[in-house]
Fold this protein.
Amino acid sequence: METAALIPELQFKAVRSSGPGGQNVNKVSSKVILTFDVSASKALSDEERALIETKLAPRLTSDNVLMLACNEDRSQLRNKQIVTQRFLDIIANALIVPKKRKKTKVPKAVIEKRIAHKKSISALKQFRKKPNLNNLRKDE
């Protein structure tokens, strides 16, 4: 993934924001909304696009558009920088391919320990039973 190729594909929109700023909030559009069309991106390969679509599925719209907003700062430029960095972090995390899990064999000692524990529990339960007095007759 090349960040230099991704950034020109981003679309920014400034809207009025709630939050800090006093009366300035009513006059200045400082909130920045970033949109990125994943399916129309030329900077991503087919594998990267598929990986992003699967990993970021809950964050994408029905048209595979990723939308992020930022109104943390009073400055529109600073909000644009914050949302761009957040976008790059999200894309970088989505492109990480998880390692395949290797099955590990259970050690013999663990199996033997489990079986010994089962036998001890079984013996303990046998001692709780009422004794069978029919087997203890004297005349046999």
Residues 71 and 115 are 61 Å apart (CA to CA). Residues 108-128 form the longest helix (21 residues).
